């Protein structure tokens, strides 16, 4: 017999593990094709947020962060759709419970539509807003949610906090009262704990440009830092004002301060509002008492008092009293005629110089909230005395790896005015790109502008400038920078040995190769698994108990089966015995013959029988 060794552990488990490993490598391979650098999907936060052939229907929240919507607040949602050949037949937007949020059927075969509807979340949770656009051939296209936060979708929270100032003008260097020629400096900081973008609007005494703002953090990711610096040789009291908000109308905050610049040989009146000393809210009272203190090297002849929502805009000043006696230190304000809103008190002191020197101070915020507002306005409408450019992206704090980012901003006219579309001017790196932008109209006073570069931008810092006017001829200029940290080249292609291959083509080819490999090796592995198992069963030695543990360090001796050798051939005589048969005795021949003759005689003497066959049975 052939020699065998004791059985070893089957390799079946290891082969099965390799099979599963191969299967799991396929989706990892495909994901690797889709994400050429990492699995962090936030790298795509600025991809494909505009209406295009790839995304023919887009849903956006133009003014707020859709990932921190405050419950029980109403927001405007914009839907933009287009077709390249056939017209748009219908658009339908639903929530996760299949409730209609917006639905409209179109006539006249429009190739591009822009609609707006309201959305009010009532529960703090993630929401699924889905939409369908139909063309004239009844072909459907998905409407996707898109914004600077597009990868996070829509989520509502219980409370959304307003941005707050972390600095105060009292920290100005050397102070808020300087001499001509002195350098004034103030670093303003603000923060939004929800990390919403902080939008801001800065204004200074009209006609004076000596105070220069330098943007350090532009409000992205909830951080705003601006350094104001400058000097002047013109003595006066200069007013500065800045508004900040996160897109919510109730989250508007402002900071106003006065920079008093005195001549070196004299001074201007120094006046300080003592009460109110902090922001207040007026809901029921009809009057407000204001107290102040002042000093001057010369003689103050009178005081003037005004209220305004924007102190730097003298046209918005509401007169309280323009001839307050020089020895007065208090003044009552009748609040019954003031509409609901946020105001500040402007107090001026005029002395007897020729020309007169004017000192000035502004109060903290005074909020009038008596429920006088008519109608329900959406909670994401922030209208100011000046036009604004808000919710711009990408910001300076964004990590932009895509070298073709979508540049986006929202434009808002001043209160009661409309945007002059022909005045919109957009520049990228000092190059006019206005003819290449897409303008979406939310209302006569609100627009959004989008720009997707046709070619990849170079790695480094890029500057965007947007300018427009409203119907009051007020003009606003907004500029910001962003940095591209990714590789140069086409983000939609792979660079392989100097050749660019489209990512979609590479994905198809790679997936096909992976499937071919899977089809070839999977049967081989499975066959090897069962073959190994069959051979292991044949090699089992039945003489060993199945429960004996294996000792890998023990050398097992082969098992041999031996037969005893025949040493001598023996020969023996054998006689077979007579067989014993239990049969009757054989009769003698004579008696047997006599018996046969008798049987013949008897047969001849028998009568003949009828041998007719019976009739067949039917």
Automatic annotation (TrEMBL):
Region (Disordered): 577-618
Top-rank taxon: Bacteria
UniProt KW keywords: Membrane, Transmembrane, Transmembrane helix
Transmembrane segments: 505-530
Entries under InterPro entries matching the protein: Ig-like_fold
Name of the molecule in the record: Fibronectin type-III domain-containing protein
